[in-house]
Amino acid sequence: MVAITRTLSPALAGERLTAVLVAGFLGLGLLFVSGFAPASALHNAAHDWRHAHNFPCH
Description:
By secondary structure, the chain is mainly alpha-helical. The chain has helices at residues 10-36, 39-52.
C-alpha cells in the first residue's frame, strides 16, 4: 500500500497565512466598529441595506 502525503509549497503556505491574517484583521475591525458605534447608526445601516436589496422592512 502506498501512502500519499500532501504538503504545501512555501508559497501556498504563505498565501494561506496571509489570508488568515487578513480575515482576522477584518473580523476584529468589524467587531471593534460595531462594538463602539451608536445603536442608531447600526440600525440605519441595516435598514438602508434592506432597502437597497429590495427587502421589505415595514
